[in-house]
UniProtKB/TrEMBL annotation:
The keyword Chaperone does not apply. Pfam families: Aminotran_1_2. This is Aspartate aminotransferase. Its EC number is 2.6.1.1. It is an enzyme of class 2 (transferase). It comes from Chlamydomonas schloesseri. It catalyses: L-aspartate + 2-oxoglutarate = oxaloacetate + L-glutamate. Belongs to the class-I pyridoxal-phosphate-dependent aminotransferase family.
């Protein structure tokens, strides 16, 4: 017979370890794959030589290869050769030069808000990190008594809702996309935002809305600004595609600049990513800016942003921000970057033409001109989940199940194959 003490010890061990042999984490459930990043895994696991990855928005060359910009390669070479470079910690707010150049890239050099020191900017872990730090800051520092509510478009990039939700913000949707017209449901958008409580945060995609590729017109942006001011909403711009939509960095910043230049002065929050426009995906280079009413407030806001960052990851990584700062500050590299950016945007536009031509040649039912009209990296096809599943299972075309395809993953060679596959599922799958 075991002594009572020994039996107690065994019982205690079993309790700590969970009931079965799986140990402490026996009860942990398998999580579903990420709806976007998970597509990379299904693509990798596919052994068919015809396989095509149109899931994650990552630029590929005509040969289907990832592309490192020449401007980036040259900046890296210069950084590696710099004898004064070191690997010390960056400040909590990141590389000051990178922060300055980032806000100027978005707002335009010499913008009054920048000149007056009204913009608090911190470096962030790409666009996602900027959104997360921004959301956390809002949840903590919106005025007392004001609702912690953010309005996001329906649909939006899937991670938006999780990011704001995890930060403790209540997430509500506003109407955005009309499936019938495959355009903007502007009346629905205005109606939903008109009933938002004062002080609510309004998440806007600065350009190249993901996943729909549908943006407001300049006139609609002006109306949105007027509504924002009238209802006292706080705009939060997610700028993940500046320069990538049109090929022109200034043109793609028009919405942000319109709001930032409004008399008032207008307050706003801005998340920037260099993943797409500089091809720095894995370097996690991004920035968060909070445009404030006064310089004094901006200083205090920056001090609180640092308190959000310090317990999360202490300070941001150096390499990506150093590359981006170099590319933006060196006139020759900056010109090269703009040239390459236009080249990437143009290749995506050419893929729209090529896919549209292939689809119309197959005389598919319905109007597919949205392929030409949608802006940015993605086409939002309207294909059903069942049709997407067949595209993957039968045709080895990997895409997100909402019918979004990354145009940047297509090439002249793969367009006919995709069109054939789409024609098949449109004809045979509901
Ligand atoms: N905001 C929007 C609107 C995005 O589309 C993405 C990336 C991000 C922010 C975040 O990008 P970053 O953190 O890498 O800077 N969306 C991708 C990738 C390209 C992803 O889902 O993470 C997409 O395929 O939708």
């Amino acid at each position: 017979m075991d002594s009572p003490n020994k039996r107690l010890a065994v019982l205690a061990r079993q309790c700590c370890a969970g009931a079965a042999d799986g140990g402490t984490w026996e009860h942990v459930q398998q999580a579903p794959p990420d709806p976007i990043i998970g597509v990379n895994d299904s693509y990798r696991a596919d052994t068919d030589p015809r396989k095509l990855n149109l899931g994650v928005g990552a630029y590929r060359t005509e040969e289907g290869k990832p592309y490192v910009l020449r401007a980036v390669r040259e900046a890296e070479a210069a950084l590696a050769a710099d004898p004064a470079a070191n690997k010390e910690y960056l400040p909590i707010a990141g590389l000051p030069e990178f922060c300055r150049l980032s806000r100027e890239l978005a707002l335009g050099p010499g913008h009054a808000a920048v000149r007056d020191g009204r913009v608090a900017t911190v470096q962030a872990l790409s666009g996602t990190g900027a959104l997360r730090v921004g959301a956390e800051f809002l949840a903590q520092h919106l005025p007392p008594g004001q609702p912690r509510v953010v309005y996001v478009p329906n649909p939006t990039w899937g991670n938006h809702k999780t990011i704001f939700g995890k930060a403790g913000m209540q997430v509500r949707e506003y109407r955005y996309f009309c499936p019938k017209t495959r355009g903007l449901d502007f009346a629905g958008m205005l109606a939903d935002l008109s009933s938002a409580p004062p002080g609510a945060v309004l998440l806007l995609h600065a350009c190249a809305h993901n996943p729909t590729g549908v943006d407001p017109t300049p006139e609609q942006w002006r109306q949105l600004l007027a509504l924002t001011q009238e209802k006292r909403l706080l705009p939060f711009f997610d700028s993940a595609y500046q320069g990538f939509a049109s090929g022109d960095l200034d043109a793609d910043a028009a919405s942000v600049r319109l709001f930032a230049s409004a008399p008032g002065p207008q307050e706003l929050v801005l998340a920037q990513s260099y993943a797409k426009n500089m091809g720095l995906y894995g370097e996690r280079a991004g920035a968060l800016s909070v445009v404030c009413k006064t310089k004094d407030v901006a200083g205090r806001v920056e001090s609180q942003l640092k308190l959000v960052i310090r317990p999360m990851y202490s300070n941001p990584p150096m390499h990506g921000a150093a590359i981006a700062a170099r590319v933006m500050s060196d006139p020759r590299l900056n010109a090269l970057w703009k040239e390459e950016l236009a080249g990437m945007a143009n290749r995506i536009k050419a893929m729209r033409q090529a896919l549209y031509a292939q689809l119309t040649a197959r005389q598919l039912p319905g109007d597919w001109s949205f392929v030409l009209k949608q802006i940015g990296m993605f086409s939002y096809t309207g294909l059903s989940k069942a049709q997407c599943e067949v595209l993957t299972a039968k045709w080895h075309i990997h895409l997100t199940m909402d019918g979004r395809i990354s145009m940047a993953g297509l090439s002249a060679a793969s367009c006919p194959y995709l069109a054939e596959a789409i024609a098949d599922v449109v004809a045979n799958v509901k």
